[in-house]
Specification:
By secondary structure, the chain is mainly alpha-helical. It contains 3 helices and no strands. The mean pLDDT is 93.
Length: 62
């Protein structure tokens, strides 16, 4: 597989899974489970969790 395709596949994998990867990193560095869950679910549709909604709003600003 060419380097371009490998990089493209890696990019897509990170792009589509970044919430889960971010949650894993948060857990590994010792953040509390609440933060881990907020990061993990920040792209969920129709969330009723106020903190997730706040993160979604902040994410839209970037």
């Amino acid at each position: 597989m060419s380097n371009f395709i490998k990089r493209y596949v890696y990019f897509l994998k990170v792009y589509y899974n970044h919430a889960e990867y971010g949650a894993q990193i948060c857990k590994e560095i010792g953040l509390n489970e609440r933060i881990v869950d907020i990061v993990r679910h920040h792209h969920d549709k129709n969330s009723i969790d106020e903190d997730v909604i706040k993160l979604q709003e902040a994410d839209k600003e970037n």
